[in-house]
Amino acid sequence: MLGPILYAMIFIGVLMIVEGIYLLFFGKTHAKDSKVNRRLNMLEQGGDREEVLQQLRKERERHEGARTLPFFSAVFEKAAQANITASPTKLVMWMGILAVGAFVIFSIGTASSILVRAIVALVLGYAVVFIWVRNKAKRRLATFEEQLPDAVDLVVRSLRIGHPFSSAVNIVAQEMQDPLGTEFGIIADESAYGMPIVESLERLANRVDVGDLRFLAVAVGIQAQSGGNLAEILDGLSQVIRARFKLFRKVVAITAEAKWSGWFLSIFPIIALLLVQIIQPDYYDRVADHPLFVPGTIAVFGLLIVNILFMRMMVNIKVR
User: Fold this and answer.
1) What are the per-10-residue average pLDDT scores of the chain (320 residues)?
2) Quick one: residue 32, left, alpha or beta (phi over 0 = left, psi -120 to 50 = alpha)?
């Protein structure tokens, strides 16, 4: 009976440990990078523009080659979006270390078979790293989406006073904070060293995977081929992005109560079960030997999982 509860508690504990270790070693650096433009900071410290560009491109492309791996592709795709500094090899090593640690804990705390312990430990090691990387990618992409309308407005103002598009991108790279500031700085540097700016924007859109950024890349590409007033096009795009972002925030506010209610209703049975086990550990002893006890327990946990999935589907409204 305590096996699933122990697995869940170990999963949550390992996830918190991984986040704590990452913040211990990289927390100050990321807190600083979130307030300033990392590319400009590297240049101010005496870095050569070409060397800084090569280093930033190396960091951005660290996980590109590993995206095609069948089992780890989802992890490396999110790691690329989150700009995780750890290499794919290190991420796999973390999964292995977490799996071994979980297997040892399961061996001490449970009497399940070796095969079950090994499978659950492997799944746990993979899931902890994936959830951690996904959460970091989600936060970074949310910040990028929030900054993008201001960046487009800055480009529009620069174009209207006579700057070319490449200079407008460079102004954004100097004025905006990370993550958008450094990403646009890479585009400005690549353009300065000969890469077409449309291609740089497309590479950024493929790496970051933000829908509004794809619209920007398409608009600039069409204007480069057929001509037209790019400032007016981007001004309309900025208004669309802001309206969409406003609608998204409104949806989040409307569904906030339903989300918290759903999570409370889903977690409360587990909390009640834990309290019963703590207060009166022998509460289920009289029925533990019943043939329907284990199937009933599995059914209850299955219904809880189904409840969580359905509640998420009901309140997770997509704004396209």
Assistant:
1) 58 66 54 63 84 85 73 85 84 88 79 80 87 89 89 92 89 88 90 88 85 87 83 89 84 79 78 77 79 84 81 69
2) alpha
